[in-house]
């Protein structure tokens, strides 16, 4: 006679995300996950005419300076911009892996939330190696966030919990999502960038659902003071991420005058509108969850996310 094992739940200090949602995410990961080491053709030679980013996503596209650049400079610039974005991606993936791992510490391993959280960490681990390899293939050394950003994030990743931790995760994932959806379909860019973007878009869509669910669950019953504090903290994290996405050294790498290029990028209305449209979904969610407070709103406006 076979007996159906009954699940015994022992004390677990935290349990938040609905089991059905986490189970669905876990099942989706089992059905559709990628191994970038075999999924991407790393040995194919790089076509020197292909961009690193869709030109429309370059921080200089649409400026008078862009019109003066040679095709070779545009290719070089977009490859460096993409490498900087991937470097920032690795930096933030390391932050979020630590936050998720800390969040799951001593919780019930039988829960789908626990198992999906670890699945997400495994995804991010593969993503970071994938981005590292793409930069290596392009022959571009990693870019680093500013010293201040590195130290601020050290505190954040050690202390943030609940909606503040998952809010930062969500911001980082949403900011890249719309751009990568364009890259995965663009034949003007390097195949390694197309392929790595496709893998990232598929796996990150589950992470974004998970982050939104974690945030909603954390916000149940919280008071105004905490909500305002979290809203501000998430917007500050957004400002650190967005501010460090494209390193200022990319312009010199493309043979441009750094001061002139930095100014052109800063006042680029086209890029500002790309940022706004790619942040629309995130802003809608933050609005629904009460995280678009006045001070946070002002920060997002300054970042052209709102
Ligand atoms: Fe990732
Ligand atoms: Fe992620």
Secondary structure topology:
Layout: H1 19-31, H2 36-39, H3 64-68, H4 71-104, H5 112-138, H6 147-159, H7 162-183, H8 191-219, H9 224-243, H10 250-253, H11 258-266, H12 269-288, H13 294-302
Helix pairs in contact: 1-5, 1-8, 4-5, 4-6, 4-7, 5-8, 7-8, 7-9, 7-12, 9-13
What does this structure look like?
It is a single chain. The chain is mainly alpha-helical. It has 13 helices and no strands. The protein has helices at 19-31, 36-39, 64-68, 71-104, 112-138, 147-159, 162-183, 191-219, 224-243, 250-253, 258-266, 269-288, 294-302. The longest helix has 34 residues, at 71-104. The N and C termini lie far apart (62 Å). The relative contact order is 0.16. Bound molecules: fe (ii) ion (FE2) (2 copies). The site of one fe (ii) ion has 4 residues, from helix 8.
What's this, in brief?
It contains 13 helices and no strands. With 306 residues, the chain is mainly α. The chain has a single domain (19-26, 48-217, 230-302), classed as Ribonucleotide Reductase, subunit A, CATH 1.10.620.
